[in-house]
Every structure is written in structure tokens, then in C-alpha cells.
Amino acid sequence: MTESGQPKIKDLKEDQVRKPAWLDILPYFLPTLLIIVNMICSYQFNFFSIGIYFSFVVIPLIDSYMMPENHKNLKEKELIGFEKDDRFLLPLYSHLILEYIFLYTNLYYISQGVIGNSFSQFFGILSAQFSAGIVSGVIGHELIHKKPLRDKIFGTLFYSRFFYGHYFIQHVSSHHKMIATVHDASSGRLGEGFWPFFRRALTQGIEVVWDFEKNRLAKEKKSPYTFENRLFSFITGQTIYYLMILIIFGKKAFLFHVALASLSMFALEVVNYVEHYGLERKQDKNGNYESIQNKHSWNTPEYLTGIINFKLQRHSDHHSNVYKPYQILSSFEESPMMPCGNLLATTIAAFHPSDWSKLMDPLAKAYNANEKVSEEQKKIVEGLVLKHNIINAVLMTYLCFF
């Protein structure tokens, strides 16, 4: 590994490097296409559920039963060419810009009484905005890991929309060092249900940032009770933002944004929970943890979900190589594989904790012990995944269309 966290790649001559064609980049515009469809269906046809339905029914079912698993990695000559091509930023910013336009258009229409006048319509437009924001959350995560300050700012601004501006510090400075340990606010522990984890993540995440900022300022012999403490800066900026929403758009739009912020907090933490659940880094006799490897995060091999989530499901490689851009993340045989996609996993974890425990606890214990999962357990897992795919499809179809 290099000092930057990148794997070493041998030097190749320029004519040996394959640069990406537009056909390599275009698939990552799929989230942008989906948000355009989402906006058209919402405003033109008053149908607000298309985004949620695609996210939690159509795409998971296609990935589970129609598409092959995607473990394909780029070749060495492609890694170099793809890594530094800024065109891969275009799908990120195109979706993020459209999602912001969608949000403030909704806030304006709500303030003018055009939409959101009934509970069902208010909830419908909230679900449409939430489904668009799920992808923006992934994009925000990608941006805060970029080296340019511009990208870090835009990523942090997204998280600030739901009082998570401090997430940049907690995620980069703590989570990436403490992953799969009891010291990490963003790692779900074996046997810990999602809702207890959610309460812990909210408070522990702020505590981590407070300690980080206090220690940083102490080295400069400064008090933590100043605006040089970025935690205070984030809280102040976010409070001003919400006051502006209230003043400009009114109470109903303000409540809409608060509800969206609450859902966004939930979405972020449930994804953190399922991505790291139950995996544990070993300690030596002195209490030192083993180095972060490709076996300390859950991965999923879905094709379409991988495009929509900008390869975030190759999470082990992301943690092993923190500066790797999404387009060159790799899949490894030793990486733990979740038996279902992230979207289905989040619904099981949050709303069916007993089934989540049956699904994941035996797998986590096996991976931690470097053991194989029994054939009997594999059948149990397949049955649970099929059961929840059916439950999700039936329930979401009813909610979205009836």
C-alpha cells in the first residue's frame, strides 16, 4: 500500500493505459435518469411513488433473480486510466444538482399550496424526495473522500441538510480508523439491534467529534468553546439554514424539510449498520487491533444496485483504500458477502430485527472465525431473503398503487 492508501500499481507507458470511453461512464448516469423520471411523474402525473418503488422493489428483484453477480474488476491498464478521469464526477454532480432543484421546487410548491395539501400527497412528495436523497447520500459520501476541497465542501453541505455536517469529521477521522471495533460509532455490533444502534450512533458520533475538536484545539492551546470548534460552526450554520427555510418557505415547507431530515438520518445510519454489522477486528495480547483489511466490511455483488450506489457495495475495498474513487473499486474473494442487497438489508434490519439476527448473526460469526457457513444455514438464508423480497414487493406495491 502507498502512503495515500492506494494499492501500488506498476508503471505503465502511456500507450499501455486504457482511458475510459463515454460508454464506461454513461451507466453511472442511471441515478440522474431516475431522478428525472421521478420529477416528471411527480409534477406531471401526481404519481410520487415511482422512486421508492424502483429503489425497494424493481431494482432489488432484478438484481436478485435476473442479473448475474458482478465481481468483475478493472485490469491494471484500466485502473490507471479510469482513476484520474474527471468525467466520472459528472454523474455525481448531475444527480446532486437535480436533487437540490427537486427539493427547493418542492419547498416552493408546498409554500404556495400547489402540492402537499392532503396528508397522502404530503407523504407522497416526501417519499419522492427521500428516494432521490438516498442516492445523494451516497454521492455525499463519495465527495467527502475526494482530495479537492471543492468536493469535500459539497459533500459536507449535503449532510448539513439534516444536521450531520459533523459527519465529515466523524467518518473520516474516526470511523475509518475504528471500523469493526467497539470504539466505532458507525459499526453495528454483533447482537445489537438497529434501533439501539441508532440511538448510540447519534450520540456517540457527536461525542467523537467533540473529543476530536477538543484535542485538536488543545494542541494549539485554545479553548474548545469557540467557533474554531467546527462542531459549533456546523450547529450554528445548520440552525441558520433551517431558520431561513422557515422564513422563506413557511411552516408547512419547514415541517416537510424536518421530516426529510429525520428520514435522512435514519437512512444514513441504517446503511452504516448493515455495512459493518457484527464484523470484528482481532486484537493482539497488547490490545492492538489488526490492520484494516478487505474482510472488515460487508459487500454485495449486485449489478444495478452497484451502478446506482456508485459501487459503494464494494465497501471492503473502500475501507482498505480510502482515496480510491468509486469507478475503480474492486471485489475480492476474501470480502464478506451479504446474502442480499443493501436496500433489502436495510428494511429487514430496521423493521424485522428477529429475521435480521437469523440472517446475519451466523454469517458474521463464521466470517469472524474464518469458518465456512453450513449448507443448512445457506438454505435458511435463501429462504429469509426470498420471504422478504416477497413481503417488500407486495407491501410496496400496495402502498404505491393502491
TrEMBL record:
It holds the Pfam family FA_desaturase. One of its GO terms (cellular component) is plasma membrane. The gene is Contig12581.g13421. It comes from the Eukaryota. It is found in: Cell inner membrane. GO terms for biological process: lipid metabolic process. Belongs to the fatty acid desaturase type 1 family. AlkB subfamily. This is Alkane 1-monooxygenase. The keyword Signal does not apply. The lineage of its organism: Eukaryota, Sar, Alveolata, Ciliophora, Intramacronucleata. The chain crosses the membrane at residues 21-40, 46-67, 88-110, 122-144, 231-249, 255-274. Residues 123-330 form the Fatty acid desaturase domain. InterPro entries: AlkB/XylM, FA_desaturase_dom. It comes from Stylonychia lemnae (Ciliate). Keywords: Cell inner membrane, Cell membrane, Iron, Membrane, Metal-binding, Monooxygenase, Oxidoreductase, Transmembrane, Transmembrane helix. It is a multi-pass membrane protein. Its main location: membrane. GO terms for molecular function: metal ion binding; monooxygenase activity.
